[in-house]
Amino acid sequence: MVHNIHMATILVTNGTLIDGNGGVPVSNANVLIEGNRILFVGAADTVVQRIARGEAAPPARTIDAHGGWILPGLIDTHVHLMIEGVNIARDMQAPFSLRFFEAVHRMRRTIEAGITTVRDAGGTDAGVKAAVENGLTVGPRMQLSITALSITGGHGDGWMRSGREFQLLAPYPGMPNNIADGVEGARKAVREVLRAGAEVVKICSTGGVLSPTDHPDFIQFSPEELDVIVREAHYRGGIKVMAHAQGCEGIKASVRAGIHSIEHGIHLDDEAIDLMLAHGTFLVPTLLAPLSVIEQGEAGGMPDYAIRKARETMEAHSESIARAHAAGVKVAMGTDAGVMPHGTNLRELGLMVSIGMTPMEAIVATTKTAAACLGWQNRIGTLEPGKLADLIIAKNDPIKNIRSLELSSNIALVMKDGVIIHQS
Ligand SMILES: [Zn+2]
């Protein structure tokens, strides 16, 4: 593309390029950025030649990657920015608005870890996203679900047999009620979350680990309810549905109903994997979530029922994800951050490699495939001309040691939308 009026450009030099497409890294690569878009990417000499030919303005600024690795801004497709650890006594006593101020730090830690985009799986309202977009606070690009819809007694229902309630996603202005039963109830709940600003609809279609009265194997939402949820979201400009789904039968019912992504996917059999392949369903493993529940349990911060359920599920979980990946199911990186501390998200990549993905496959799951899971593959996820300038520079070779990404101090620079928002 030839520009008549050149904007100021930024040239990133002296790094090895991992562009998110999964190909061989390109050493001594350059990335040229104009405004908030990528203009050219590739071997240093070709980018310099294009500037010499007048296809872009000479760079107003150069960023030296100091021999580091240049990657697309990383994407976590399953976080809860407004949650960090579950401590019922603490959370029952915290003043309501404290969560918003705590989220400021969590969003900064997320950015410092190299994550420039998240899909929030429940608990974050439209005002938090607006605060980041308006520049009031630093944070990742967000795709919001607002809340997670659940049946009465399901994974999203915090009613306890004491008769008390601990609703993790208690309604407030901007956060609709998340409990829905029956076809009409489910239809109305979808309409309410969309009205509140949901860009993806989150449901719980099976039980889970952190809920008091259910089990991961329980099916939640009937086929009729799932069907109306998927259709109702689709009518609003093709909005997708993501489902917390752990037990095998609930996963199959979700995939058959046209759910876009299966979150956790703990128990997958061959039929479930075949259904996911046939429907093109994404799998978001969150391998870090049960591990983190156990780690925190050992430190004394989790309810006993949650630790017990997490231990029961870990082995089956790893096996399921490994088989699904080997069969060719699309795996998008997601952590359930909020269950674990925000900013530790990239431990997930080490776990993905431990179940049989190559380091490059884990990176593609965190870039290109994650962007596709959000439906934002035309804007983010790879370093290619025309995409938004979201990129990071890692100090160490992530292909040699994927776990080097775990430490935020190994992330030298984070750029979002053409703006450097973190340097270390
Ligand atoms: Zn979650």
Calculate the mean pLDDT score and round it.
94
What is the chain-wise order of helices and strands? EEEHEEEHHEHEEHEHEHEHEHHEHHHEEE
Please, what is the oligomeric state? Answer: single chain
The tally of domains stands at 2
CATH fold name of the largest domain, please?
A: TIM Barrel
- List the ligand species: zinc ion
Largest sheet, described in full?
A: 8 strands, mixed
Apparent shape: globular
CATH class placement of the largest domain: Alpha Beta
The helicity comes to 25-40%
Q: In CATH, what is the homologous superfamily of the largest domain? A: Metal-dependent hydrolases
> Can you count the helices?
13
Beta-strand percentage range: 15-25%
The Rg value, from CA coordinates, equals 21 Å
**Which spans of ≥5 residues are poorly predicted at pLDDT below 50?**
none
Structure in words:
- The longest helix has 24 residues, at 304-327.
- The chain folds into 2 domains: 9-72 and 382-423, Urease, subunit C, domain 1 (Roll); 74-374, Metal-dependent hydrolases (TIM Barrel), CATH 3.20.20.140.
- Helices cover 34% and strands 20% of the residues.
- It is α/β, with parallel strands linked by helices.
- The model has no long low-confidence stretch (mean pLDDT 94).
- It contains 13 helices and 17 strands.
- Residues 78, 80, 121, 336 line the site of zinc ion.
